């Protein structure tokens, strides 16, 4: 059973099978259209499907981005291409069904046509998932990987062992090879924000009889998304375990928090009528971590981080709350939070049209005030994600103007995906290791 759950769905045999089934499906549907007389009509239907699929894809994309504002920015070209491919398969099958009519002898062909369309749609879904790199295995898709994570037990909380500052800690002769991953329902007494469960990674050093007071990395996911994305697409445990092995078992305590609340929601990571997400992070999450886990409390030892929405949020926290966060790892951050592509929709939706109130909450406003010396900002984006590369450059200029130390990383050949994070995150973590003085 474990072998099935660990089977990769983004590449390998599963990807090959998806391509083969889809190719066979398209071939069957196309042949079914043009092999029946009159062939000109079948060819016309085939050409019509080929033209209608991309047109419909772009039309729906425009509606979702520009009218309904489901997404605050354009979707990647790769995602649009495979969405169009999936629609092409559906349109081909529909054309076949219409051409065959209701003849009883066509029921077998009808079934095969529907199966062919599903094969093309399956390839589209598999390739879109592979682009983002979110669900890598069968276990990720089914949720069984997450269901195995246990709740945080009292023995792992601060009272479960004594602790000393990291600078005065001596590593024992033996530490476990891997850290611990736990789930926890964080309180929301200050904010009332309806967050989902958080996840906590505790490195091998945390298991020592006398624990070091470790630095903290608070991570946030993209939108739509949730904390679990950092465990599946982000492969958090494996990446942090590798980092810990390179540093004598020492790594930050990682808390994956949820300032979104719902996969389809967008709180802007602010306190607005959309929710008190900022208060949740600052007055609920941060105090709980300091009280319940063996961690350092100085802001210099704390970093915020995230992907897309989460990256934008981490920049906001760094700029606005230097008393809480001294560093940030921002993977594909926006220059300012957004509900929609049009700025006016964001201001109207969250601030009732009050532009000044919105701009007073932006990172640019706080960086412009200066006083960010001693802070560190790591900005990363994929080379195939030019919009977010340019936005990172804007943020970098603002942060440097405020006095922060900034490192920009463009990952060649990667887009707006977790694969980009996989390549950039080790660089960012090493910069944090230097800053925190890890062994």
Commentary on this structure:
By secondary structure, the protein is α/β, with parallel strands linked by helices. It contains 16 helices and 13 strands. It folds into two domains: about 130 residues, no CATH class; about 290 residues, Alpha/Beta hydrolase fold, catalytic domain (Rossmann fold, 3-Layer(aba) Sandwich), CATH 3.40.50.1820. The longest helix has 29 residues. It is globular, with a radius of gyration of 25 Å. It starts with a helix and ends with a helix.
Number of helices: 16
Quick one: biggest sheet?
Answer: 9 strands, mixed
CATH architecture of the largest domain: 3-Layer(aba) Sandwich
Q: How far is it from the N-terminal to the C-terminal residue, by CA?
A: 39 Å
CATH overall fold name of the largest domain: Rossmann fold
Nearest-angstrom radius of gyration?
25 Å
- Order of strands across the main sheet: 1-3-4-7-6-10-11-12-13
Q: Poorly predicted ranges (pLDDT <50, ≥5 residues)?
A: none
How do the SSEs run, as a string of H and E? HHHHHHHEEEEEEHHEEEHEHEHHHEHEH
The best one-word shape is: globular
CATH H-level superfamily title of the largest domain: Alpha/Beta hydrolase fold, catalytic domain
Strand content: 5-15%
Structural class designation = alpha/beta
CATH class of the largest domain: Alpha Beta
Work out the helicity level.
Answer: 40-55%
The counted number of beta strands is 13
Average the pLDDT over all residues and give the rounded result.
91
- How many separate structural domains? 2
